[in-house]
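Input/output pair, single chain:
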Amino acid sequence: MVIAAFMVAGPVAEQVFGVRTALLRSWTMFSAIGLGVIDASFEIRRPDGALLPLDRFEMLGASRSGGLKRIESRDELASVIKRLCAAAGQGADIRVRARQATRAGWQIVHSDAENACAD
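Output:
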């Protein structure tokens, strides 16, 4: 019971009360293995203006367990976007929402406000 209380007290002390102390450890969203990973979603605009979810695996004919499963850097994301735009053809309108895991939490990498293929 004492150990469980100690485990809960660290994150609560910092996140609720703003107390930082070496005695109580706070909770860190990403400590090592998840840092840098990019969470991305893709949409394509149809000629009638509707946005539809875009499955990058299907569009690129890639295995769901292959290299496209994890996007680990901004350069990899740019490469995936470039490949999707090429596969969709000239004039394609693909929107990308992407965020990257950092020690401070999620950082926005790409907003869906603009056509990613226009870059």
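The chain has a mean pLDDT of 86. The chain is about 30% helix and 20% strand.
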